Amino acid sequence: MSLRLGAIFDSLSDEFEAALFADPDVLIDKLAPIESAGLAELSFLSHPKYLNKLAASCAACVIVSPAMKDAALARGGCIVVADPYRYFARVTQVWKKHHEPQESARIHPSAVIDPSAQLGDGVSVAAFVCIAAGAVIGACTRLGEHCVIGRDARVGAHSRLAPRVTVGDHCQLGERCILHAGVVIGSDGFGFAPHAGRWEKIEQLGAVRIGNDVEIGANTCIDRGALGDTVIEDGVKLDNLIQIGHNVHVGEHTAMAGCVGVAGSAHIGAHCTIGGGAVVLGHLRLADHVNVSASSVVTRSILQPGHYTGFFPIDDNAAWEKNAATLKQLHTLRDRLKQVEKQIALQLKTTD
Questions:
Q1: Which residues form the catalytic set?
Q2: pLDDT at 50
Q3: CB 134 within 8 A of CB 152
Q4: How does pLDDT run across 77-91, given as a tens digit for each residue?
Q5: pLDDT digits over 114-152, tens only?
Q6: Count of alpha carbons within 13 Å of 110, Cβ hemisphere only?
Q7: What CATH superfamily classification does 112-308 receive?
Q8: pLDDT over threshold 80, residue 102
Q9: What is the CATH number of domain 3-99?
Q10: In what order do the strands lie in the sheet with 267-268?
Q11: pTM
Q12: Is 3-99's fold the same as 112-308's?
């Protein structure tokens, strides 16, 4: 299943202005990291801090930027392109398309499909899938084993749902979306009214609307809205084990790493990034182009683009406990400091 280097290069020639400095007939057996790539493997180098690994690499060809061209040529074959990282990303797509077995569209006999559901041309339905009344599945979409598509739900064309994905009643999924195993779209939002020491359930009457080209990692949950809809705009990328609360709005092309939690009614802008394990509290607003560091807790709205961090640094436990105890006294210390400042100001005024 090797590919000619020239064939890989030619497949992207209409999309990139790149130059090939290697034998186009060399066979590529694998894509590999630069430090471990072998004589029949293709790799890339995008960051200058890894330049020291280039000379020692045995790769048949390395994708590099123009600034690294001379160093790459001194080593051997290379492809020179302005954005090596994006070029390599497209190479991985070409590679997967070539090596992934082409499945013909079929409906497994164990699937349960309501007669009122609509399936577009070329839809593939795996074993034990359940598609409820009024659901609409777009053309060429693939539903993995044990997927559940709820009543009047919509799944856009050319989307791929891995096994055990649930798309709840009335929820909408755009075109070319990828949902990994265990994703749940449209679970009930966490809404309860306290009464006499008990909790009264607030029925979640909204839905979830997801745009085009969205990818959602394994076991991520997106809750339906209480009254309005939870909205995930075009191009959003969500990692594994993320919780999106009810009525949250996530702007286009925002990306969140694993274990992020976004509480209800938060509004996340477009082109934001949120690092792994970070938390955004409910009803807050993040502007476009906000970057939140991993493990941060966002406790206030952020209305200006930028990189924000909010967590207590790790330390050995004894030192951390002392610092935590000191933090509890900060308010008192502030008041005492203000009093001292007033006394100093008064003494200076008396001296003058």
A1: 246
A2: 84
A3: yes
A4: 999 999 999 999 999
A5: 999 999 999 999 999 999 999 999 999 999 999 999 999
A6: 8
A7: Hexapeptide repeat proteins (2.160.10.10)
A8: no
A9: 3.40.1390.10
A10: 118-119, 136-137, 154-155, 172-173, 208-210, 230-232, 249-250, 267-268, 285-286
A11: 0.91
A12: no
